[in-house]
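User: Hand in any protein.

Assistant:
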Amino acid sequence: MSFLKNLFNTKKNVLPIDTKISEKRIYEIDKTTIIVNAIMTIESFAIVYTTKNIDTYKNRFSFLKEKLNYLKSYQDCENFIEVIEESFENYKERYFDKKIEDKYFSIKNPTELLKMLPDIYPVYLFQVAGRYASNEAEKINNLKQVSSKIKRLEKLVIYFESIKNELENITGKEGNQFKLAEENLIELKLNLEQLKNL
């Protein structure tokens, strides 16, 4: 930023309004920052794709959007893809034990990915709910007292009610994820009734 300020404030370097500064020069100055932001974007994508926690999902999804908007501002630079690929190499070195899903490479086109986010959000939201429910179901099955199972299952029903309502607000009642959440909720309520009747 100071580079740009100095460039335009020095009389002998003043450029005509229609002249573009070399995108590559600006890019080289910002390269380290871009790599750091790209790594944070990959990390966020990985968390969004694997978390069981709904609050983590929402926060990271918002952060992912913010980082993609940052990367988008450099997308027209001639060596953008090269630097993003370098970011992936850095990520592999830092997190050698983590698998890089093919979908993470879509950050090479942040403009397109940003357009897809509204459609991706409900799909991944339902997946988060599914992972959370599977985890809770395992815990419920391991409980010995029926009363404890009932309490845990009641909380899961409330959780899925909130997911269903959120999906309805996003996709409407015709959305696939809403319908899936509704089906899961019906099944959970049936299980709860069966437990209460034991």
In short: The two ends are 68 Å apart (CA to CA). Confidence is low (pLDDT under 50) at residues 1-23.
